[in-house]
Design goal:
Structural class: mainly beta
Largest sheet: 7 strands, mixed
Strand order of the largest sheet: 12-11-10-14-19-16-17
CATH architecture of the largest domain: Sandwich
Strand content: 35-45%
Shape: globular
Number of strands: 36
Distance between the termini: 33 Å
Helix content: under 10%
Radius of gyration: 23 Å
CATH topology of the largest domain: Immunoglobulin-like
């Protein structure tokens, strides 16, 4: 393979002082990854004089320094924003945090955002969870050079919910997010307002991330091949960019808006005293009714809307949100290797605290939990355009190869089955298909002809080495490398219609299965090893190229990403 070195990225790592690996000591596999594929560039979009914005602000991304730990400040990358037009509460900064400002938008608003690149490498911002035109979605082809500006203009079409904004440049998403470029975005609407849920100081954002620091309080990232293959994990949990977070509350109900902003870490959230978690909503907004869970799984990119009622608790009492123990998200060999290589690292799937609630005030009034929250359309197999030919999203892993549908990401590589008719509902099947460098689609006319692989029955993948995918089955040696992947599809939220898991994975699956919420609308779904997930997704309103990928950001940068074209 010819290696193309990205000089801008070299300068970023050398000049920014962010604790990245020095080029002189960088493993050769990382140097090779600098130029895995060339992404075409589209000139930066300018403002449309005919677009009448209700809200307008400048969004800056640039190096900064923030006090995270005691002692020296940490060098980070940071979003900041300046409001030019719109309600004052549109932008809310999180005090002392490297995270970008909280963005509050109303359904129906027309929004203009001007992104200014103050980094020493290319970047672009993706509005994860928003339904926007393709040219506004933050595809890597729209990345801009240092010093350049890019104009986003769109109408807010989403129902109320929590979205994310973060970088999406080709092969540099993980490092930019890890070093601080991320923020939460909230859409509000009339349906939500009528519920009179807790707001203001009683609505608390909770962005959970894990980070690794050196002795000078600088961020450590991408130390070796293992960190890429399994995803990067830190040894310290941060909430809203701060360690050891304690939140003071009154004895009343609160609304916790939780986001997993980690690069790779999956959480099993539960209250330490066994109090159930009352879920109001997920990625795509409010559920129809509250759902009660003993614990909830939360993968990178997923969001959770939680009703937390501290009524009746005495002043001085505490409640801890923990991540409980679970198994199966990493290959056992890789997990053992990681534990040996990084003895002080917080093990994946172990039990540890996330944040602490402290009751500091006694009050008598508290809002009541609504029995009915919202309504939204439910999708059915009879409504889809392809009931007998689900679009496949086949997951496979190999040494330094993270693939979807047997292919690493490449520009202009949309396959026939990835071309989707505008204004249709599509049945999509996500599954693990190991051993496959290629496959053909039975009953769907898709053939890649790349050699060895396996078969998928029932409208998924198929190929001729005598191996088959049977609702989450495994094939060849690839099963030994199988790990959990949070799959994110850009554009509109989807509905999960079924999950199934192969019999040889049930023991691990039992440690997580009751933490999935399938009654709401999603844009990111955790697919466990051996699991098959079927979803129905709408492709409405906008033509163009949109992405789908693993939201383990190291895997995304390694090529576990594809385009689909709405035509």
């Amino acid at each position: 393979m010819t290696t193309i070195i990205n000089n801008a990225r070299r300068r970023f790592m050398v000049q920014s002082g962010l604790g990245l690996l020095a080029l002189s000591g960088m493993p050769s596999f990382l140097q090779a990854m600098e130029g895995m594929a060339v992404m075409p560039r589209i000139p930066p979009r300018k403002a449309n004089p005919n677009f009448k914005a209700d809200v307008e602000f400048d969004l800056y991304c640039r190096p900064s320094q923030v006090a995270i730990l005691k002692g020296a400040q940490t060098q980070v990358l940071q979003y900041s924003a300046v409001l030019k037009k719109g309600p004052k509460q549109t932008l809310v900064n999180i005090p002392g945090s490297y995270l970008g400002p909280l963005i509050h938008l109303q359904k129906g608003q027309k929004v203009r955002i001007v992104l200014h690149n103050g980094l020493s490498e290319t970047t672009v911002t993706h509005w994860h969870g928003l339904h926007v035109p393709a040219e506004m979605d933050g595809h890597p082809m729209y990345a801009i050079d240092p010093g350049a500006a890019l104009v986003y203009e769109f109408e807010v079409l989403n129902r109320a919910g929590m979205a994310i904004y973060h970088p999406h440049p080709h092969e540099a998403t993980a490092s930019q997010v890890y070093h601080g470029l991320a923020g939460a975005l909230f859409v509000h609407d009339e349906e939500e307002a009528k519920l009179e849920l807790p707001t203001g100081e009683h609505e608390i954002p909770i962005v959970i991330q894990d980070r690794l620091f050196d002795e000078q309080n600088q961020l450590i990232y991408a130390r070796n091949k293992h960190d890429r293959m399994v995803g990067f994990y830190g040894d310290r949990i941060l909430v809203n960019g701060l360690p050891d977070v304690k939140i003071d509350v009154a004895s009343r109900a609160y609304r916790l808006r939780i986001l997993n902003g980690s690069n790779a870490r999956i959480y099993k959230l539960a209250w330490d005293d066994g109090t159930p978690i009352t879920v109001l909503g997920v990625d795509g907004g409010l559920l129809e009714q509250p759902e009660i869970k003993a614990y909830v799984m939360l993968a990178p990119g997923e969001r959770l809307d939680v009703w937390a009622d501290f009524s009746g608790r005495s002043v001085g009492s505490q409640l801890v949100m923990r991540s409980l123990a679970f198994t199966g998200v990493l290959p056992k060999m890789a997990q053992r290797m990681g534990n040996m290589m990084h003895a002080n690292q917080l093990p994946v799937g172990s039990d540890y605290p996330i944040f602490t609630i402290r009751v500091t005030e006694k009050v008598s009034d508290s809002p009541k939990l609504p029995a009915q929250l919202s309504s939204f359309p439910h999708y059915h197999i009879n409504d889809v355009a392809n009931p007998n030919k689900p679009m496949p999203i086949s997951i496979s892993e190999g040494p330094m190869a993270m693939l979807l549908n047997g292919r690493a990401y490449a520009d202009n590589d949309v396959q026939d089955f990835e071309r989707i008719k505008l204004n249709t509902l599509q049945l999509i099947e996500i599954f693990h298909a190991h051993g496959g460098m290629g496959m053909e689609h039975k009953g769907g006319g898709m053939g890649m002809g790349m050699g060895m692989g396996m078969g998928h029955k029932g409208g998924g993948m198929g190929m001729g080495m005598g191996m088959e995918h049977k609702e989450g089955g495994m094939g060849m040696m690839g099963g030994m490398m199988s790990m959990a992947h949070p799959i994110h599809l850009h554009g509109q939220q989807f509905q999960i219609i079924s999950r199934s898991v192969s019999s040889d994975k049930t023991d691990d699956y039992e440690t997580v299965r009751h933490g999935f919420i399938e009654t709401g609308l999603k844009d990111t779904v955790l697919v466990m090893p051996g699991e098959t997930v079927r979803i129905i997704k709408p492709f409405q309103d906008f033509k163009g190229v949109f992405m789908y990928h693993c939201h383990n950001l190291e895997h995304e940068d390694m090529g576990m990403m594809r385009d689909f074209s709405i035509e």
